[in-house]
Amino acid sequence: MHAVVLVGGFGTRLRPLTFSTPKPLLPIANVRQLEHLIAALGTAGVTEVVLAIGFKPQPFLDAFPDGVCAGVALHYAVEPEPLDTAGAIAFAARHAGISDTFIVMNGDILCDVDLTALVAFHKAHDAEGTLHLTPVDDPSQYGVVEIDADGWVQRFVEKPQPGETSSNVVNAGTYVLEPAVLDRIPENQKMSIERVVFPAMVADSRLAAMATDDYWIDTGRPDTYLQANLDLIDGSRSRILSSVGVNAHVAASASITHSVIGDNCVVEDGCVVSDSVLLPGAHIGARVRLERSLVMGSVGDGASLVDCVVGLDGHVSPNASLVGVKVPDPSEVAN
Ligand code: GDD
Ligand code: MG
Q1: pLDDT of 198-235, one tens digit each?
Q2: Which of 9, 121, 163, 175 can pair with 104 through a Cys bridge, CB separation 3.0 to 4.6 Å?
Q3: 131 lines ligand 1 (CB under 6 A)
Q4: Does ligand 1 have an atom closer than 6 angstroms to the CB of 108?
Q5: What domains are there in the chain, each with its CATH number?
Q6: Residue 8 Cα, ligand 2 centroid: separation in angstroms?
Q7: How much is the pTM?
Protein backbone atom coordinates (compact mmCIF):
# COMPACT_ATOMS: atom_id res chain seq x y z
CA MET A 1 0.00 0.00 0.00
CA HIS A 2 1.09 3.59 -0.70
CA ALA A 3 0.95 6.53 1.69
CA VAL A 4 1.29 10.23 0.94
CA VAL A 5 2.83 12.33 3.71
CA LEU A 6 2.27 16.09 3.43
CA VAL A 7 5.48 17.91 4.27
CA GLY A 8 5.02 21.16 2.39
CA GLY A 9 3.94 23.62 5.08
CA PHE A 10 6.10 26.56 6.05
CA GLY A 11 6.27 25.74 9.77
CA THR A 12 5.68 29.41 10.55
CA ARG A 13 4.69 28.93 14.18
CA LEU A 14 7.88 27.00 14.95
CA ARG A 15 10.17 29.75 13.72
CA PRO A 16 13.06 30.33 14.26
CA LEU A 17 13.65 26.53 14.47
CA THR A 18 12.13 26.02 11.01
CA PHE A 19 14.37 28.66 9.41
CA SER A 20 17.06 25.95 9.20
CA THR A 21 15.08 22.70 9.32
CA PRO A 22 11.67 21.88 7.80
CA LYS A 23 9.21 20.97 10.54
CA PRO A 24 8.95 17.23 9.64
CA LEU A 25 12.73 16.91 9.92
CA LEU A 26 12.90 18.38 13.44
CA PRO A 27 13.66 15.61 15.92
CA ILE A 28 11.19 14.47 18.54
CA ALA A 29 13.18 12.78 21.30
CA ASN A 30 16.14 12.52 18.92
CA VAL A 31 14.24 10.82 16.09
CA ARG A 32 13.03 12.95 13.17
CA GLN A 33 9.29 13.47 13.27
CA LEU A 34 8.99 12.04 9.75
CA GLU A 35 10.74 8.88 10.89
CA HIS A 36 8.17 8.41 13.69
CA LEU A 37 5.35 8.72 11.12
CA ILE A 38 6.89 6.50 8.48
CA ALA A 39 7.75 3.79 11.02
CA ALA A 40 4.05 3.68 11.99
CA LEU A 41 3.03 3.52 8.32
CA GLY A 42 5.51 0.69 7.72
CA THR A 43 4.04 -1.28 10.63
CA ALA A 44 0.62 -0.99 8.96
CA GLY A 45 1.94 -2.50 5.73
CA VAL A 46 2.84 0.63 3.76
CA THR A 47 5.70 -0.21 1.39
CA GLU A 48 6.16 3.15 -0.35
CA VAL A 49 5.75 6.64 1.07
CA VAL A 50 5.33 9.57 -1.31
CA LEU A 51 6.61 12.78 0.26
CA ALA A 52 4.47 15.67 -0.94
CA ILE A 53 6.97 18.51 -0.89
CA GLY A 54 5.74 22.02 -1.56
CA PHE A 55 9.10 23.77 -1.64
CA LYS A 56 12.77 23.26 -0.65
CA PRO A 57 13.21 19.52 -1.44
CA GLN A 58 16.94 19.49 -0.70
CA PRO A 59 16.78 19.01 3.11
CA PHE A 60 14.62 15.92 2.56
CA LEU A 61 16.94 14.49 -0.08
CA ASP A 62 19.89 15.13 2.25
CA ALA A 63 18.14 13.58 5.25
CA PHE A 64 17.45 10.29 3.46
CA PRO A 65 20.18 9.94 0.83
CA ASP A 66 19.37 6.26 0.18
CA GLY A 67 15.71 7.05 -0.47
CA VAL A 68 14.68 4.88 2.49
CA CYS A 69 13.25 5.94 5.86
CA ALA A 70 12.44 3.51 8.70
CA GLY A 71 12.81 0.69 6.18
CA VAL A 72 10.18 2.14 3.82
CA ALA A 73 10.98 3.30 0.26
CA LEU A 74 10.53 7.03 -0.37
CA HIS A 75 9.24 8.70 -3.53
CA TYR A 76 9.70 12.46 -3.76
CA ALA A 77 6.96 14.54 -5.38
CA VAL A 78 8.00 18.20 -5.55
CA GLU A 79 5.18 20.54 -6.52
CA PRO A 80 5.96 23.24 -9.09
CA GLU A 81 4.57 25.63 -6.46
CA PRO A 82 2.83 24.80 -3.15
CA LEU A 83 -0.59 23.47 -4.23
CA ASP A 84 -2.30 23.42 -0.80
CA THR A 85 -3.44 20.15 0.74
CA ALA A 86 -5.72 18.69 -1.97
CA GLY A 87 -3.51 19.92 -4.81
CA ALA A 88 -0.48 18.41 -3.07
CA ILE A 89 -2.13 15.04 -2.42
CA ALA A 90 -3.34 14.75 -6.03
CA PHE A 91 0.01 15.88 -7.44
CA ALA A 92 1.86 13.34 -5.28
CA ALA A 93 -0.54 10.47 -6.02
CA ARG A 94 -0.38 11.09 -9.78
CA HIS A 95 3.40 11.48 -9.67
CA ALA A 96 3.76 8.09 -7.97
CA GLY A 97 1.06 6.40 -10.08
CA ILE A 98 -1.16 5.52 -7.12
CA SER A 99 -4.16 3.49 -8.35
CA ASP A 100 -5.35 1.71 -5.21
CA THR A 101 -6.57 2.58 -1.67
CA PHE A 102 -3.93 4.78 0.00
CA ILE A 103 -3.23 6.55 3.30
CA VAL A 104 -2.56 10.29 3.67
CA MET A 105 -0.91 11.86 6.71
CA ASN A 106 -0.22 15.43 7.71
CA GLY A 107 3.51 15.57 8.42
CA ASP A 108 3.15 17.52 11.67
CA ILE A 109 1.17 15.16 13.87
CA LEU A 110 2.21 12.32 16.15
CA CYS A 111 -0.28 9.68 17.18
CA ASP A 112 -0.79 6.11 18.27
CA VAL A 113 -3.85 5.35 16.12
CA ASP A 114 -4.05 1.77 14.84
CA LEU A 115 -3.73 2.39 11.09
CA THR A 116 -4.67 -1.20 10.25
CA ALA A 117 -7.96 -0.67 12.11
CA LEU A 118 -8.53 2.63 10.25
CA VAL A 119 -8.10 0.90 6.86
CA ALA A 120 -10.42 -1.94 7.98
CA PHE A 121 -13.05 0.64 9.09
CA HIS A 122 -12.77 2.36 5.69
CA LYS A 123 -13.23 -0.93 3.79
CA ALA A 124 -16.13 -2.05 6.01
CA HIS A 125 -17.92 1.24 5.22
CA ASP A 126 -17.06 1.04 1.52
CA ALA A 127 -16.34 4.77 1.84
CA GLU A 128 -14.60 7.02 -0.69
CA GLY A 129 -12.58 8.46 2.17
CA THR A 130 -12.21 7.87 5.91
CA LEU A 131 -10.85 10.35 8.44
CA HIS A 132 -9.23 9.66 11.77
CA LEU A 133 -10.80 11.90 14.45
CA THR A 134 -9.62 12.90 17.90
CA PRO A 135 -11.19 14.96 20.71
CA VAL A 136 -9.51 18.27 21.64
CA ASP A 137 -10.16 20.98 24.25
CA ASP A 138 -10.14 23.91 21.80
CA PRO A 139 -11.34 22.86 18.33
CA SER A 140 -11.08 26.36 16.79
CA GLN A 141 -7.65 25.69 15.25
CA TYR A 142 -8.67 22.43 13.57
CA GLY A 143 -11.11 20.87 11.13
CA VAL A 144 -14.19 20.15 13.22
CA VAL A 145 -16.23 17.11 12.28
CA GLU A 146 -19.78 16.00 13.07
CA ILE A 147 -20.60 12.31 12.50
CA ASP A 148 -23.72 10.15 12.70
CA ALA A 149 -24.09 6.95 14.74
CA ASP A 150 -22.84 4.82 11.81
CA GLY A 151 -19.60 6.76 11.35
CA TRP A 152 -20.60 8.89 8.32
CA VAL A 153 -19.51 12.54 8.34
CA GLN A 154 -22.44 14.97 8.42
CA ARG A 155 -20.39 18.16 8.55
CA PHE A 156 -16.77 19.24 8.15
CA VAL A 157 -15.90 22.82 9.15
CA GLU A 158 -12.26 23.92 8.90
CA LYS A 159 -11.24 26.42 11.62
CA PRO A 160 -14.82 27.21 12.72
CA GLN A 161 -15.89 30.57 14.07
CA PRO A 162 -17.04 30.59 17.73
CA GLY A 163 -20.48 28.98 17.98
CA GLU A 164 -20.39 27.58 14.43
CA THR A 165 -20.36 23.98 15.68
CA SER A 166 -20.70 22.36 19.08
CA SER A 167 -18.49 19.34 18.29
CA ASN A 168 -15.06 19.05 19.94
CA VAL A 169 -14.03 16.13 17.73
CA VAL A 170 -11.55 17.14 15.03
CA ASN A 171 -9.81 15.89 11.94
CA ALA A 172 -6.64 14.26 13.29
CA GLY A 173 -4.80 14.55 9.95
CA THR A 174 -4.73 10.89 8.84
CA TYR A 175 -6.98 9.72 5.98
CA VAL A 176 -7.65 6.56 4.01
CA LEU A 177 -8.66 7.52 0.47
CA GLU A 178 -9.83 5.77 -2.68
CA PRO A 179 -8.20 6.91 -5.94
CA ALA A 180 -11.67 8.19 -6.95
CA VAL A 181 -11.03 11.20 -4.66
CA LEU A 182 -8.40 12.34 -7.18
CA ASP A 183 -11.15 12.88 -9.78
CA ARG A 184 -12.43 15.71 -7.58
CA ILE A 185 -9.11 17.58 -7.79
CA PRO A 186 -8.02 19.32 -11.01
CA GLU A 187 -4.39 18.90 -12.09
CA ASN A 188 -1.82 21.43 -10.90
CA GLN A 189 -4.34 23.67 -9.22
CA LYS A 190 -4.23 24.98 -5.66
CA MET A 191 -7.02 23.43 -3.62
CA SER A 192 -7.65 22.69 0.06
CA ILE A 193 -8.86 19.19 0.92
CA GLU A 194 -10.34 20.48 4.17
CA ARG A 195 -12.23 23.45 2.72
CA VAL A 196 -13.29 22.08 -0.68
CA VAL A 197 -12.94 18.31 -1.15
CA PHE A 198 -14.14 17.01 2.24
CA PRO A 199 -17.31 19.20 2.25
CA ALA A 200 -18.06 17.94 -1.31
CA MET A 201 -17.62 14.32 -0.17
CA VAL A 202 -19.90 15.01 2.81
CA ALA A 203 -22.56 16.34 0.43
CA ASP A 204 -22.31 13.03 -1.49
CA SER A 205 -22.46 10.98 1.77
CA ARG A 206 -19.14 9.32 0.86
CA LEU A 207 -16.92 10.47 3.76
CA ALA A 208 -16.64 8.24 6.84
CA ALA A 209 -14.71 8.86 10.07
CA MET A 210 -13.36 6.83 12.97
CA ALA A 211 -12.85 8.59 16.32
CA THR A 212 -10.30 7.26 18.81
CA ASP A 213 -8.98 8.68 22.06
CA ASP A 214 -5.45 7.34 21.95
CA TYR A 215 -2.38 9.61 22.07
CA TRP A 216 -2.49 12.44 19.52
CA ILE A 217 -0.66 15.75 19.24
CA ASP A 218 -0.13 18.41 16.54
CA THR A 219 3.52 19.37 16.98
CA GLY A 220 3.27 22.67 15.08
CA ARG A 221 3.57 25.12 18.00
CA PRO A 222 6.50 25.60 20.39
CA ASP A 223 4.48 24.38 23.40
CA THR A 224 3.15 21.27 21.63
CA TYR A 225 6.52 20.53 20.02
CA LEU A 226 8.08 20.64 23.50
CA GLN A 227 5.27 18.47 24.89
CA ALA A 228 5.66 15.88 22.10
CA ASN A 229 9.35 15.52 22.99
CA LEU A 230 8.80 15.17 26.72
CA ASP A 231 5.92 12.70 26.25
CA LEU A 232 8.37 10.31 24.59
CA ILE A 233 10.88 10.28 27.44
CA ASP A 234 8.70 10.27 30.55
CA GLY A 235 6.38 7.32 30.01
CA SER A 236 3.33 9.35 28.92
CA ARG A 237 3.20 7.13 25.84
CA SER A 238 3.60 3.39 25.45
CA ARG A 239 7.11 3.97 24.05
CA ILE A 240 9.96 5.48 26.03
CA LEU A 241 12.95 6.82 24.11
CA SER A 242 16.35 7.80 25.40
CA SER A 243 16.59 11.44 26.46
CA VAL A 244 20.24 11.81 25.43
CA GLY A 245 21.41 11.72 21.81
CA VAL A 246 24.70 10.44 20.47
CA ASN A 247 27.97 12.26 21.03
CA ALA A 248 26.44 14.70 23.55
CA HIS A 249 28.73 16.13 26.22
CA VAL A 250 27.04 16.98 29.50
CA ALA A 251 29.23 18.22 32.36
CA ALA A 252 28.98 16.07 35.48
CA SER A 253 28.04 19.15 37.51
CA ALA A 254 25.07 20.00 35.24
CA SER A 255 21.59 19.15 36.46
CA ILE A 256 19.22 17.87 33.76
CA THR A 257 15.57 17.17 34.61
CA HIS A 258 12.79 16.01 32.26
CA SER A 259 14.62 17.24 29.16
CA VAL A 260 15.92 16.00 25.82
CA ILE A 261 19.60 16.49 24.95
CA GLY A 262 20.18 16.21 21.18
CA ASP A 263 23.04 14.67 19.23
CA ASN A 264 26.34 16.55 19.50
CA CYS A 265 25.10 18.98 22.17
CA VAL A 266 27.40 20.50 24.76
CA VAL A 267 26.13 21.38 28.24
CA GLU A 268 28.80 23.00 30.40
CA ASP A 269 29.46 23.07 34.16
CA GLY A 270 26.76 24.02 36.60
CA CYS A 271 23.83 24.28 34.14
CA VAL A 272 20.33 23.67 35.41
CA VAL A 273 18.07 22.42 32.61
CA SER A 274 14.43 21.45 33.13
CA ASP A 275 11.46 20.65 30.84
CA SER A 276 13.51 21.69 27.81
CA VAL A 277 14.71 20.35 24.47
CA LEU A 278 18.22 20.90 23.15
CA LEU A 279 18.29 20.28 19.41
CA PRO A 280 21.30 18.69 17.71
CA GLY A 281 24.46 20.75 18.11
CA ALA A 282 23.15 23.20 20.73
CA HIS A 283 25.82 24.73 22.97
CA ILE A 284 24.85 25.66 26.52
CA GLY A 285 27.51 27.64 28.39
CA ALA A 286 28.43 27.31 32.06
CA ARG A 287 25.85 28.01 34.81
CA VAL A 288 23.02 28.56 32.32
CA ARG A 289 19.47 28.09 33.61
CA LEU A 290 16.96 26.73 31.05
CA GLU A 291 13.30 26.17 31.75
CA ARG A 292 10.64 25.08 29.21
CA SER A 293 12.85 26.21 26.33
CA LEU A 294 13.86 24.93 22.89
CA VAL A 295 17.46 25.59 21.87
CA MET A 296 19.24 24.94 18.57
CA GLY A 297 21.95 27.64 18.71
CA SER A 298 24.11 28.76 21.63
CA VAL A 299 23.53 30.25 25.07
CA GLY A 300 26.30 32.24 26.78
CA ASP A 301 27.58 31.57 30.32
CA GLY A 302 25.31 32.53 33.17
CA ALA A 303 22.21 33.25 31.00
CA SER A 304 18.72 32.38 32.15
CA LEU A 305 15.96 31.38 29.67
CA VAL A 306 12.35 30.58 30.49
CA ASP A 307 9.82 29.71 27.74
CA CYS A 308 12.27 30.69 24.99
CA VAL A 309 13.00 29.38 21.50
CA VAL A 310 16.54 29.76 20.13
CA GLY A 311 17.13 29.00 16.43
CA LEU A 312 20.27 27.75 14.73
CA ASP A 313 21.53 31.30 14.22
CA GLY A 314 20.44 32.34 17.70
CA HIS A 315 23.19 33.33 20.13
CA VAL A 316 22.11 34.39 23.60
CA SER A 317 24.57 36.75 25.31
CA PRO A 318 26.24 35.74 28.57
CA ASN A 319 24.20 36.61 31.67
CA ALA A 320 21.10 37.54 29.61
CA SER A 321 17.79 36.92 31.36
CA LEU A 322 15.01 36.15 28.86
CA VAL A 323 11.39 35.11 29.32
CA GLY A 324 9.13 34.12 26.42
CA VAL A 325 11.56 35.36 23.76
CA LYS A 326 12.46 33.97 20.31
CA VAL A 327 16.09 34.36 19.21
CA PRO A 328 16.43 35.55 16.51
CA ASP A 329 13.04 37.28 16.48
CA PRO A 330 11.27 35.74 13.43
CA SER A 331 9.46 39.00 12.68
CA GLU A 332 12.80 40.72 12.13
CA VAL A 333 14.37 38.03 9.92
CA ALA A 334 13.98 38.36 6.14
CA ASN A 335 12.99 35.05 4.53
N1 GDD B 1 3.07 19.47 -0.07
C2 GDD B 1 2.35 20.43 0.52
N3 GDD B 1 1.98 21.52 -0.21
N4 GDD B 1 2.00 20.26 1.82
C5 GDD B 1 1.27 21.25 2.40
C6 GDD B 1 0.87 22.42 1.71
C7 GDD B 1 1.25 22.55 0.32
O8 GDD B 1 0.94 23.53 -0.37
N9 GDD B 1 0.16 23.20 2.58
C10 GDD B 1 0.13 22.53 3.77
N11 GDD B 1 0.81 21.36 3.67
C12 GDD B 1 0.98 20.31 4.69
C13 GDD B 1 1.60 20.80 6.00
O14 GDD B 1 3.00 20.62 5.97
C15 GDD B 1 0.96 19.85 7.02
O16 GDD B 1 1.67 18.64 7.11
C17 GDD B 1 -0.40 19.56 6.42
O18 GDD B 1 -0.31 19.87 5.02
C19 GDD B 1 -1.54 20.38 7.07
O20 GDD B 1 -1.25 21.76 6.95
P21 GDD B 1 -1.17 22.71 8.25
O22 GDD B 1 -0.84 24.07 7.75
O23 GDD B 1 -0.32 22.10 9.30
O24 GDD B 1 -2.70 22.71 8.68
P25 GDD B 1 -3.32 22.89 10.12
O26 GDD B 1 -2.47 22.29 11.17
O27 GDD B 1 -3.72 24.31 10.29
O28 GDD B 1 -4.69 22.00 9.98
C29 GDD B 1 -4.64 20.69 9.46
O30 GDD B 1 -4.29 19.74 10.48
C31 GDD B 1 -5.24 19.64 11.58
C32 GDD B 1 -4.72 18.54 12.50
O33 GDD B 1 -3.46 18.84 12.99
C34 GDD B 1 -6.03 20.36 8.89
O35 GDD B 1 -5.94 19.12 8.21
C36 GDD B 1 -7.09 20.30 10.00
O37 GDD B 1 -8.33 19.91 9.46
C38 GDD B 1 -6.65 19.31 11.07
O39 GDD B 1 -7.58 19.32 12.15
MG1 MG C 1 -0.62 21.48 11.29
Answers
A1: 999 999 999 999 999 999 999 999 999 999 999 999 98
A2: 175
A3: no
A4: yes
A5: 2-223 (3.90.550.10), 242-332 (2.160.10)
A6: 11
A7: 0.94
